# Entry
Amino acid sequence: MKDSVLRKIAKYLIYFSFLTPLLVLPSLFIFPYVVPKVIFFRSAILLASGVTLVLYLYSLKSKKDSKNKLFTPISVSLALFLLSLIVSTFLSFDWYRSLWDTQERMLGLSTLVFYFVFFFVIKYIFNSWKEWRDAFITFGGVGVLVSLIGIIQKISPNFLYNRGSDRVLSTLGNPIYLGGFGLFLLFAGLLFFFKEKGWVKWYSATVSLFGFASIITSGTRGSLLGMFTGFIFIAVLYIILKQGRQKTRNIILGILILGSVIGIGLFTFKDTSFVKSVSTLNRIAHISPFEGTAKTRLMAWDVAVEGWKEKPIIGWGPNNYYYAFNKHYNPEFLTFGFQETWFDNAHSVLFNTLATQGAFGLFSYLLIFVASGFCLWKVYKRNEEEEVFIFLFGSGFLIAHFVHNLFVFENITSYIYFFFFLGFLDFLFTNNKKEEYRHNVSKLAIIPSLLLALTGILFLNVNVAGANITELEVRKLMTSGDNEESLKKYEETFKWKSPYQYDISWDFSTDVLYVIPNIYSYNQEIARNFFDVAVSGIESVMVQYPNDVRAVLAYMDLMRSGGIVLFEIPGAQEDVLEKLKLAEELSPRRQQIEYAKITFLAGTGEVDEAIKMAQETLSRNENIAEAYYQLARIYEFNKQHKEILPVLDAAIKRGLVFTDPVHQIFVAESYEFEGRFEDALYWYNMAYTSTGNDRIKFKRDELSKMTQKPVPQSLEEFFNFNK
# Structure
């Protein structure tokens, strides 16, 4: 077989991997935005690397790889970063989590290593401008489709599982991922626009335009800030390098000054009706380090620094920020909602890397940008007139991506486009020339490499996919009420030997917590069987992750609900008390542990003590919605219904919002019980918006029809904040 044929196969496999951002399969997978993408990408790269390895070994034999330099500033910086990942993984606080991560992210070392392989594969396979241009055309086309889906979701918010949100997910699962991808498309598109001619030039302009659209539709302030910073950097570089005519430079300088004036004006008049009416302008104008998620990010960064102080050289280990966060938990996080109290990432690549890989990891990460900037400068100095736009827009993207990453963590797609860009810069730096490959490759030489790749796919991907698909079937059966069959299906997940079996056991155990009271009502024997299996599952999680406070809390919830209330298991109360002490050691100052204790006291008959503790917890911080919910819930448990609404009203008057769907439904039912139907309709609508659950929608619409009241869209429509 001719090696040119093998190169073509490798090239198409790389193109195949570019389809990764488009994959979202909610009908097949739990975490449909993550699992299929990772499985697909790893499989494509395993096959591509198998073919590339054969080509490389033959090129060594024939000495035809001289032009493809292995050691370059970028490749060395990446190798150092990979070394940091490996060392930090195997010396980490929890090496298993570092190696595999969770099923929700799947960005452990077992996946990250494939991005480094991806870099070296594309570095070796694409060795001419035409090949890199064609690769951009393919990847850019994928980006256009991702952007187009985001635009459709902006127009039709329920399209493709967006569930009516004004922030679009496209196929990536998070608006900020879309904004980051948009940055790459914008700057890479402009680079090729200025370098190419004919239809490719205008195709590149289209890609760039869709990239800009992705940034805008995502509504992500980090991406917008990255874009503005990137363009400002380009403009300043253009003036400094004295490119173009003096008139052009003066125009650019004028635009910079005008942009500064507009920016100042935007922040000055941020509360005007015009700014508020334009969502993108409103989000930019209200960037503040002391409000909303920006405040929680600052707090998360502070936790990262505290964690780094404990392990300054190699950090806690990749994906172990979660443990540092729990240990240094700040109770103020709950002020911003229950969802802001569990951080598995510092929401900043820099701070997260500092905490998880230490000083060595952060140094190696920053070195990647330094090496890339150095390579761009060398390319520019080689031919200033020809390569100026590569230098400008390449630098612009690096700055934009760096700024964007100050407010977000890397994801499956961002690693692809970033490593693609690094491979492209590496090609430009080495100045490779197209070589002719005419020698034959023995078919027998391909077989070992192919078998190795297929073995990797079997043990890294097929088992993960099979277990994940089976887990979704378990959840569907449980939801439909076919409990006995769901239990049998759950047992099947173990047959796949997935490294994420602990995650699956976690999900099953927490799902059982919600369905077991209903099962108990009609068949106590089946309920007990479910309980025993769920407890066994969560115990396996605690054995594997002994420092995971959430696993301890989940175990306590199961024992309270099943062990104490339903089945009255001897020693269950003592077991829960013991786990409460353990939870307090793992995450001091965490309110969820206090709430767990309140629930435990109420469940064991000490209701007055539970109410007293709930009131004390609320009095310590009256700006936490969860504290009001806990007190109201205890009143409801004790059938003190008249005490519930004053508590809920007090929370709402303070401007607090219940964001957890379970809490929203409780609030809605409480208002409905007392005949305050407008309040009930509002919170049922909030619960439907949060979950997309058709049953909640039906309840909302039925209540609206029965009371002949419209569904309020805001509390201001009916709630008297002065009463």
In short: The mean pLDDT is 89. Residues 617-723 form a domain with the Serine Threonine Protein Phosphatase 5, Tetratricopeptide repeat fold (CATH 1.25.40.10).
